[in-house]
Design a protein that fits this description.
Layout: H1 24-56, H2 61-72, H3 84-121
Helix pairs in contact: 1-2, 1-3
């Protein structure tokens, strides 16, 4: 029995297991695209943190940048927050940052992992 794979926008990101391994040029382009997407996500999340700490902290811009960077990188807060709204924001931003960090790591290794597993499944 033969199944036809319906071509969608998402099914064309990587080659199917029945297709040959992508050329190195395609692989490097894929890694670069994933890196750019991951960088944009991190930048957006950093901006959310900077604005939140700036206005709910309240902190000056450089302290907000420093605190948001440390939280997003998993290092922990630097500045003590005194306001109720600032503490709420800091709590939710820390949880949000943990999820973003793990997701971005998965996004970065996806092309490498796919190529590795695809190479294992190639039939001679």
């Amino acid at each position: 029995m033969s199944y036809k794979i319906k071509s969608t926008r998402f099914s064309t990101i990587y080659e199917h297991k029945s297709e040959p391994l992508a050329e190195k040029k395609v692989f490097y382009k894929r890694v670069f695209k994933h890196f750019i997407l991951s960088s944009m996500i991190l930048l957006l999340c950093l901006l959310i943190g900077i604005i939140g700490y700036r206005y709910l902290g309240p902190m000056n811009w450089i302290d907000a940048l420093h605190n948001a960077s440390m939280i997003l990188g998993g290092m922990g807060p630097v500045v003590t927050i005194e306001t109720f709204n600032g503490k709420l924001f800091s709590s939710f931003y820390a949880l949000f940052s943990g999820v973003v960090f793990i997701t971005n790591f998965g996004l970065l290794i996806a092309p490498v992992a796919h190529r590795f597993f695809h190479r294992l499944n190639i039939e001679d």
